[in-house]
Amino acid sequence: MSHDAKENFIPYALPRLTPEEMVAQSLAFYREMDTRRSARIFSPEPIPLEAVRHCIDTACTAPSGAHKQPWTFCLVTNPELRKEIRRAAEEEEFRNYHGRMSQEWLEDLEQFGTDHIKPFIEDAPALIVVFKQVHDTPEGGGKRANYYVNESVGIAVGILLTALHRIGLVALTHTPSPMGFLAEALKRPANERAFLNIPIGYPAEGLAVPDLTRKSRAEVLVEYP
Questions:
Q1: Does residue 29 form part of some domain?
Q2: 147 vs 164: CA distance, rounded Å
């Protein structure tokens, strides 16, 4: 490490928990997050947007390739804009459900009862449309590379979903691919590509979600002692 690089570093430490505390806290957090579910029916009740902004701040603590932070979070509450986004999304989704998706894909979706109609885009009081920055555009012009963009933005979204769940909001990771219409509707610059559309809000009264089970630890964890 060069002398100049060392000058850019600051001391860092975390509280040292006992093994028992670590086990207890990790189990409590797992149990909390195991209640997280995606929702497609939202209450129209307004949500505290400052709390949502804090969740987005939290998402931006995610690690990123070379610390380029290649993400933009668009918080959309304007009803007319959400109506426009819904119209364009349903056009793309109609094409998906009527030709683009394989029969196997459609069969896998049957248990969720989904189709190309997406009322949640308007019913939810807010959308968080996440864009990935495929490259930087320095003020002087030109392009500068970003690294591990999908990985970086994916991690940030995971943290965002966790933060929203912790304050009692539900969310849906909606991918009406292709999503170029989102950049057009939100007038995003040419270096940004839509990554996810995330409707958020309080769960609707009487909300029901599919009765799903998650894979067991034995199915997803391989240890090499």
A1: no
A2: 27
- 55 assigned to some structural domain: yes
Structural domain boundaries, residue 178: 39-203
Look up the CATH number of the domain holding residue 165: 3.40.109.10
In a domain, 3, yes or no: no
- Provide the residue-wise pLDDT of the chain in tens; the chain has 225 residues: 565 667 889 999 999 999 999 999 999 999 999 999 999 999 999 999 999 999 999 999 999 999 999 999 999 999 999 999 999 999 888 787 887 778 887 787 787 778 788 999 999 999 999 999 999 998 878 899 999 999 999 999 999 999 999 999 999 999 988 899 999 999 999 999 999 999 999 999 999 998 989 999 999 999 999
Return the CA Rg of the chain. Answer: 20
Residue 210 lies in a domain: no
In three state form, how does the secondary structure of 134-185 look?
CEECCCCCCCEECECHHHHHHHHHHHHHHHHHHCCCEECCECCCCCHHHHHH
Q: What is the pTM of this model?
A: 0.92
What are φ and ψ of residue 132, in 5° steps? -100, 140
- Distance set, CA 91 to CA 66, 109, 118, 158, 169 (Å): 38, 19, 10, 28, 28
Angle at 84 between CA 81 and CA 88, to 5 degrees: 140
Omega before residue 189 within 30° of 0, cis = no
What does the DSSP 8-state code read for residue 190? Answer: T
Per the structure, how many domains does the chain have?
Answer: 1
